[in-house]
Design a protein that fits this description.
Length: 327
């Protein structure tokens, strides 16, 4: 599997001329998703056509963080947390996936999607039995990312699974920005399917948004309530160097042994990036993947360094209007 280096929650749009079908989608969509429903194609098109400049502004904001780190040496971790705090409203409101019914009066689903020339989100086409060949051709031509037959008995499950996957792909388009922070060795490790899967599983248990960086090497993640954590990643051949850093900070002999043996990791680089004054912390290490080539350990980021609840996903979601079918 491919590991996205950047993930953020976003929005979903569904367009269908049948309000009852949209009402069904509203019931099955998880409550933690922000979904807007449209009956009329022209209104949906108008909304999505306003978004490309916002996508570009968000991508540019991320690129500026990496450029600033590269040009001035400004640590990435505090920059990312400022980005999370400042651009939450814009980021979460971006429509990552558009779900469109093919058979609609006046304009079919493919014609509607054809109006969204510059919109960079993912496209799902809902089809009737007679539309399947059209959908296959559209998929093969790259006009849509997925099609789902409306008459399928498991249509709700298939749609939810598709939306989960496509939301990841949509926000993961920013990965290339952050890949520039990785060394070739770090990049090679993250491209191993077993390691990518292990990191993805660990992230999914804790955070709704994250960034993977190479300096220091790890994952900075944030849960829906705004709490921030750090998954430090340490190649096994770097344990001796990490132990030497810990020794320079006055770590005890048994702690140094635990680091060298891959039993514990210490968050010295996290503390340096934050400008933290208190002593570094140690946390139990775990294998990332099937062998000992990459280790990881979780550390909490003290709240005083984070944006806190301000700009967190749950706070933003609570401020959004209730789900309605726009007729």
């Amino acid at each position: 599997m491919s590991l996205s280096l950047f993930q953020s929650p976003g929005s979903i749009v569904a367009l269908d001329d049948d309000p009852d079908y949209l009402a069904m989608l509203s019931l099955v969509a998880p409550k933690e998703w922000y979904v807007r429903f449209f009956v009329h194609a022209d209104e949906c098109i108008r909304q999505l056509q306003q978004e490309p400049p916002l996508w570009e502004a968000d991508a540019w904001a991320q690129q500026e963080l990496v450029d600033n780190w590269r040009q001035t040496g400004a640590p990435l971790i505090p920059q990312i947390m400022r980005y999370w705090g400042q651009f939450a409203r814009r980021r979460y409101a971006l429509t990552q996936v558009c779900v469109v019914d093919y058979s609609m009066p006046g304009m079919n689903g493919l014609q509607m999607l054809g109006e969204l020339v510059d919109w960079p989100g993912m496209r799902v086409l809902l089809t009737g039995q007679a539309d399947e060949q059209v959908a296959v051709q559209a998929f093969n031509r790259g006009l849509i990312e997925q099609f789902i037959p409306k008459q399928a008995t498991d249509v709700s499950r298939r749609l939810i699974d598709a939306l989960v996957r496509l939301q990841r792909l949509a926000s993961g388009q920013a990965s290339q920005v952050w890949r520039g922070t990785l060394t070739p060795m770090q990049n090679a490790l993250l491209r191993q399917p077993s390691i990518a899967r292990a990191i993805t599983d660990e992230i999914a248990q804790r955070w709704v948004e994250y960034v993977i960086i190479g300096a220091p090497f790890g994952v900075l993640g944030r849960d829906a309530d705004g709490h921030v954590g750090w998954l430090q990643l340490e190649p096994s051949d770097g344990l001796e160097e990490l132990a030497e850093l810990a020794e320079s900070e006055g770590a005890k002999a048994e702690q140094l042994d635990a680091i060298r043996q891959g039993q514990m990791l210490i968050d010295i680089e996290l503390g340096q990036a934050l400008g933290r004054s208190e002593p570094s912390s140690l946390s139990p290490a775990m294998k990332i993947g099937p062998d000992d080539s990459l280790l990881g350990a979780f550390f909490e980021v003290p709240p005083r360094f984070t944006p806190g609840h301000d700009g967190g996903y749950n706070q933003w979601l609570a401020a959004q209007p209730a789900r309605v079918i726009r007729q």
